[in-house]
Protein backbone atom coordinates (compact mmCIF):
# COMPACT_ATOMS: atom_id res chain seq x y z
CA UNK A 1 0.00 0.00 0.00
CA UNK A 2 1.09 3.53 -0.67
CA UNK A 3 1.52 5.51 2.58
CA UNK A 4 0.33 8.61 0.76
CA UNK A 5 -2.85 6.91 -0.35
CA UNK A 6 -3.40 5.53 3.13
CA UNK A 7 -3.15 9.05 4.50
CA UNK A 8 -5.54 10.32 1.83
CA UNK A 9 -7.98 7.49 2.64
CA UNK A 10 -7.88 8.38 6.34
CA UNK A 11 -8.65 11.99 5.51
CA UNK A 12 -11.43 10.91 3.12
CA UNK A 13 -12.99 9.04 6.03
CA UNK A 14 -12.78 12.18 8.14
CA UNK A 15 -14.68 13.95 5.38
CA UNK A 16 -17.24 11.13 5.43
CA UNK A 17 -17.67 11.67 9.19
CA UNK A 18 -18.51 15.31 8.49
CA UNK A 19 -20.96 14.31 5.75
CA UNK A 20 -22.62 11.70 7.98
CA UNK A 21 -23.22 14.12 10.84
CA UNK A 22 -24.64 16.83 8.61
CA UNK A 23 -26.80 14.46 6.56
CA UNK A 24 -28.27 12.83 9.64
CA UNK A 25 -29.04 16.23 11.17
CA UNK A 26 -31.16 17.11 8.12
CA UNK A 27 -32.55 13.68 7.21
CA UNK A 28 -36.34 13.51 7.64
CA UNK A 29 -36.20 17.08 8.94
CA UNK A 30 -35.52 18.86 5.64
CA UNK A 31 -38.46 18.82 3.21
CA UNK A 32 -37.90 22.02 1.23
CA UNK A 33 -36.01 21.82 -2.04
CA UNK A 34 -35.24 23.83 -5.15
CA UNK A 35 -35.02 22.75 -8.77
CA UNK A 36 -31.71 23.34 -10.55
CA UNK A 37 -31.38 24.32 -14.21
CA UNK A 38 -31.45 20.63 -15.22
CA UNK A 39 -34.65 20.22 -13.15
CA UNK A 40 -32.91 17.98 -10.60
CA UNK A 41 -33.64 18.80 -6.94
CA UNK A 42 -31.23 20.29 -4.43
CA UNK A 43 -31.71 20.77 -0.67
CA UNK A 44 -30.05 22.77 2.05
CA UNK A 45 -28.29 19.55 3.08
CA UNK A 46 -26.63 19.11 -0.35
CA UNK A 47 -25.10 22.56 -0.16
CA UNK A 48 -24.20 22.45 3.53
CA UNK A 49 -22.36 19.16 3.15
CA UNK A 50 -20.40 20.21 0.07
CA UNK A 51 -19.46 23.54 1.64
CA UNK A 52 -18.20 21.81 4.81
CA UNK A 53 -16.18 19.24 2.83
CA UNK A 54 -14.65 21.95 0.67
CA UNK A 55 -13.59 23.92 3.73
CA UNK A 56 -11.94 20.85 5.26
CA UNK A 57 -10.09 19.98 2.02
CA UNK A 58 -8.91 23.55 1.46
CA UNK A 59 -7.50 23.61 4.99
CA UNK A 60 -5.78 20.20 4.85
CA UNK A 61 -4.70 20.20 1.19
CA UNK A 62 -4.69 23.80 -0.07
CA UNK A 63 -2.95 22.82 -3.32
CA UNK A 64 -5.57 20.26 -4.34
CA UNK A 65 -8.43 20.96 -6.70
CA UNK A 66 -12.08 20.24 -5.93
CA UNK A 67 -14.95 19.26 -8.22
CA UNK A 68 -18.37 19.09 -6.60
CA UNK A 69 -21.90 18.62 -7.84
CA UNK A 70 -23.22 21.83 -6.31
CA UNK A 71 -20.30 24.29 -6.50
CA UNK A 72 -18.45 23.15 -9.62
CA UNK A 73 -14.67 23.11 -10.07
CA UNK A 74 -12.10 25.12 -8.13
CA UNK A 75 -8.31 25.05 -8.41
CA UNK A 76 -8.25 22.29 -11.04
CA UNK A 77 -4.97 20.38 -11.20
CA UNK A 78 -3.28 16.99 -11.07
CA UNK A 79 -4.69 16.15 -7.62
CA UNK A 80 -8.45 16.52 -7.40
CA UNK A 81 -11.19 15.77 -4.89
CA UNK A 82 -14.55 14.85 -6.42
CA UNK A 83 -17.64 15.29 -4.25
CA UNK A 84 -21.30 14.35 -4.41
CA UNK A 85 -22.68 15.63 -1.10
CA UNK A 86 -25.94 13.70 -1.44
CA UNK A 87 -26.22 11.08 -4.13
CA UNK A 88 -29.92 10.23 -4.31
CA UNK A 89 -31.39 13.57 -3.32
CA UNK A 90 -34.88 12.33 -4.22
CA UNK A 91 -34.47 9.44 -1.80
CA UNK A 92 -33.20 11.84 0.87
CA UNK A 93 -36.18 14.17 0.33
CA UNK A 94 -38.65 11.28 0.52
CA UNK A 95 -37.21 9.87 3.74
CA UNK A 96 -35.63 6.81 2.13
CA UNK A 97 -32.32 5.72 3.72
CA UNK A 98 -30.58 4.68 0.50
CA UNK A 99 -28.98 8.07 -0.25
CA UNK A 100 -25.26 8.55 0.25
CA UNK A 101 -22.34 10.96 0.24
CA UNK A 102 -19.62 10.20 -2.30
CA UNK A 103 -15.99 11.25 -1.96
CA UNK A 104 -13.13 10.54 -4.36
CA UNK A 105 -9.51 11.54 -4.65
CA UNK A 106 -8.10 11.47 -8.19
CA UNK A 107 -4.64 11.78 -9.70
CA UNK A 108 -4.25 12.83 -13.33
CA UNK A 109 -7.99 12.35 -13.86
CA UNK A 110 -8.09 8.76 -12.56
CA UNK A 111 -9.83 7.86 -9.27
CA UNK A 112 -7.42 6.52 -6.65
CA UNK A 113 -9.36 6.64 -3.37
CA UNK A 114 -13.13 6.32 -3.06
CA UNK A 115 -15.61 6.47 -0.19
CA UNK A 116 -19.29 5.59 -0.31
CA UNK A 117 -20.89 6.88 2.90
CA UNK A 118 -24.47 5.85 3.68
CA UNK A 119 -25.35 8.17 6.58
CA UNK A 120 -28.84 6.93 7.45
CA UNK A 121 -27.61 3.33 7.59
CA UNK A 122 -24.30 4.18 9.31
CA UNK A 123 -22.51 2.16 6.65
CA UNK A 124 -19.34 3.09 4.79
CA UNK A 125 -17.20 1.56 2.09
CA UNK A 126 -13.64 2.73 1.46
CA UNK A 127 -11.59 1.62 -1.52
CA UNK A 128 -7.95 2.27 -2.40
CA UNK A 129 -4.79 0.40 -3.40
CA UNK A 130 -6.74 -2.63 -4.58
CA UNK A 131 -8.75 -3.27 -1.40
CA UNK A 132 -12.19 -2.29 -0.13
CA UNK A 133 -13.60 -2.30 3.39
CA UNK A 134 -17.14 -2.11 4.72
CA UNK A 135 -17.18 -0.43 8.15
CA UNK A 136 -13.53 -1.39 8.44
CA UNK A 137 -13.84 -5.03 7.38
CA UNK A 138 -12.68 -6.39 3.98
CA UNK A 139 -15.42 -7.18 1.45
CA UNK A 140 -15.53 -8.92 -1.93
CA UNK A 141 -17.96 -9.03 -4.82
CA UNK A 142 -19.96 -12.22 -5.41
CA UNK A 143 -17.88 -13.30 -8.39
CA UNK A 144 -20.99 -14.24 -10.38
CA UNK A 145 -19.86 -15.00 -13.93
CA UNK A 146 -23.10 -15.84 -15.77
CA UNK A 147 -25.71 -13.32 -16.85
CA UNK A 148 -28.44 -15.95 -16.49
CA UNK A 149 -27.62 -16.18 -12.77
CA UNK A 150 -27.04 -12.50 -12.12
CA UNK A 151 -28.98 -10.16 -9.83
CA UNK A 152 -29.06 -6.76 -11.52
CA UNK A 153 -29.92 -3.28 -10.33
CA UNK A 154 -30.29 0.27 -11.61
CA UNK A 155 -31.39 3.61 -10.22
CA UNK A 156 -34.40 3.50 -12.56
CA UNK A 157 -35.63 4.32 -16.07
CA UNK A 158 -35.82 8.07 -15.41
CA UNK A 159 -32.01 8.20 -15.39
CA UNK A 160 -31.61 6.83 -18.95
CA UNK A 161 -32.02 8.15 -22.44
CA UNK A 162 -34.89 6.27 -24.08
CA UNK A 163 -32.61 4.19 -26.28
CA UNK A 164 -30.26 3.32 -23.42
CA UNK A 165 -33.19 2.28 -21.25
CA UNK A 166 -34.38 -0.07 -23.98
CA UNK A 167 -30.89 -1.57 -24.13
CA UNK A 168 -30.65 -2.09 -20.37
CA UNK A 169 -34.22 -3.35 -20.14
CA UNK A 170 -33.53 -6.05 -22.76
CA UNK A 171 -30.14 -7.01 -21.28
CA UNK A 172 -31.33 -7.14 -17.68
CA UNK A 173 -34.28 -9.38 -18.54
CA UNK A 174 -31.71 -12.06 -19.35
CA UNK A 175 -30.62 -12.12 -15.71
CA UNK A 176 -32.04 -14.04 -12.75
CA UNK A 177 -33.54 -10.98 -11.04
CA UNK A 178 -33.53 -7.21 -11.19
CA UNK A 179 -34.30 -4.39 -8.77
CA UNK A 180 -34.77 -0.66 -9.33
CA UNK A 181 -33.75 2.15 -6.97
CA UNK A 182 -30.92 2.51 -4.55
CA UNK A 183 -28.59 4.95 -6.34
CA UNK A 184 -25.10 4.63 -4.82
CA UNK A 185 -26.28 2.07 -2.27
CA UNK A 186 -26.76 -0.42 -5.12
CA UNK A 187 -23.06 -0.15 -5.96
CA UNK A 188 -22.25 -0.61 -2.27
CA UNK A 189 -24.32 -3.79 -2.26
CA UNK A 190 -22.45 -4.98 -5.36
CA UNK A 191 -19.11 -4.46 -3.61
CA UNK A 192 -20.40 -6.45 -0.64
CA UNK A 193 -21.59 -9.36 -2.81
CA UNK A 194 -25.36 -8.88 -2.45
CA UNK A 195 -26.02 -8.09 -6.10
CA UNK A 196 -24.04 -8.88 -9.22
CA UNK A 197 -24.29 -5.92 -11.58
CA UNK A 198 -25.47 -2.31 -11.59
CA UNK A 199 -25.98 -0.05 -14.59
CA UNK A 200 -26.99 3.57 -14.97
CA UNK A 201 -27.50 5.55 -18.14
CA UNK A 202 -26.60 9.10 -17.17
CA UNK A 203 -23.81 9.73 -14.67
CA UNK A 204 -21.41 12.62 -14.08
CA UNK A 205 -17.90 12.29 -12.59
CA UNK A 206 -19.16 13.09 -9.10
CA UNK A 207 -21.59 10.15 -9.43
CA UNK A 208 -19.09 7.48 -10.51
CA UNK A 209 -15.53 8.53 -9.58
CA UNK A 210 -15.91 7.52 -5.90
CA UNK A 211 -17.40 4.17 -6.97
CA UNK A 212 -14.42 3.05 -9.05
CA UNK A 213 -11.88 2.32 -6.27
CA UNK A 214 -14.65 0.76 -4.15
CA UNK A 215 -15.86 -1.63 -6.87
CA UNK A 216 -12.39 -2.48 -8.16
CA UNK A 217 -10.96 -2.90 -4.66
CA UNK A 218 -13.67 -5.46 -3.94
CA UNK A 219 -12.73 -7.43 -7.06
CA UNK A 220 -15.36 -6.04 -9.42
CA UNK A 221 -15.25 -4.26 -12.77
CA UNK A 222 -16.65 -0.82 -13.59
CA UNK A 223 -16.47 0.93 -16.99
CA UNK A 224 -18.57 2.85 -19.47
CA UNK A 225 -20.87 0.87 -21.78
CA UNK A 226 -18.05 0.37 -24.26
CA UNK A 227 -15.71 -1.11 -21.67
CA UNK A 228 -13.54 1.97 -21.30
CA UNK A 229 -12.03 3.22 -18.04
CA UNK A 230 -13.89 5.97 -16.19
CA UNK A 231 -12.11 9.29 -15.70
CA UNK A 232 -12.90 12.90 -14.90
CA UNK A 233 -13.31 13.57 -18.63
CA UNK A 234 -16.28 11.21 -18.99
CA UNK A 235 -20.02 11.61 -18.47
CA UNK A 236 -22.60 9.04 -19.52
CA UNK A 237 -23.61 5.41 -19.09
CA UNK A 238 -21.84 3.27 -16.48
CA UNK A 239 -21.77 -0.49 -15.86
CA UNK A 240 -20.38 -2.28 -12.79
CA UNK A 241 -20.16 -6.07 -12.49
CA UNK A 242 -18.99 -8.76 -10.09
CA UNK A 243 -16.59 -10.39 -12.59
CA UNK A 244 -14.92 -9.77 -15.91
CA UNK A 245 -16.88 -12.62 -17.52
CA UNK A 246 -20.22 -11.18 -16.42
CA UNK A 247 -19.13 -7.70 -17.44
CA UNK A 248 -18.24 -8.83 -20.94
CA UNK A 249 -21.57 -10.66 -21.29
CA UNK A 250 -23.45 -7.54 -20.25
CA UNK A 251 -21.47 -5.31 -22.60
CA UNK A 252 -22.36 -7.64 -25.46
CA UNK A 253 -26.02 -7.73 -24.40
CA UNK A 254 -26.16 -3.94 -24.17
CA UNK A 255 -24.51 -3.59 -27.56
CA UNK A 256 -26.91 -6.09 -29.11
CA UNK A 257 -29.82 -3.86 -28.14
CA UNK A 258 -28.35 -0.70 -29.66
CA UNK A 259 -29.68 0.83 -32.87
CA UNK A 260 -27.17 0.66 -35.78
CA UNK A 261 -27.06 4.45 -36.18
CA UNK A 262 -26.69 5.36 -32.51
CA UNK A 263 -24.30 8.16 -31.65
CA UNK A 264 -21.03 7.10 -30.08
CA UNK A 265 -20.62 7.78 -26.38
TrEMBL record:
Cite the Gene3D superfamilies for this sequence: 3.40.190.80, Fructose-1,6-Bisphosphatase, subunit A, domain 1
Amino acids binding Mg(2+):
69, 84, 86-87, 207
Q: Which family does it belong to?
A: Belongs to the inositol monophosphatase superfamily.
> What GO biological process term is on the record, naming one?
L-histidine biosynthetic process
Read off the Pfam families from this record: Inositol_P
For whether the record's keyword set contains Secreted, the answer is: no
From the Swiss-Prot or TrEMBL record, give the protein name.
Histidinol phosphate phosphatase
Asked whether the keyword Protein biosynthesis is assigned, the reply is no
- Residues spanning the signal sequence: none
Q: Supply the source organism for this entry.
A: Hansschlegelia plantiphila
Amino acid sequence: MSPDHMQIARFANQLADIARDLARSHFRATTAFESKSDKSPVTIADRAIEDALRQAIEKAYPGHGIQGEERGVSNAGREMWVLDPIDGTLSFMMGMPTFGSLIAYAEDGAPVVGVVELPALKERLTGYDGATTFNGQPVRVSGCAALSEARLSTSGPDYFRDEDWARFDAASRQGAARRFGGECSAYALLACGYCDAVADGSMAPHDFMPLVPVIEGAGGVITDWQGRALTLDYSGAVLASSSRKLHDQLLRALDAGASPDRAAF
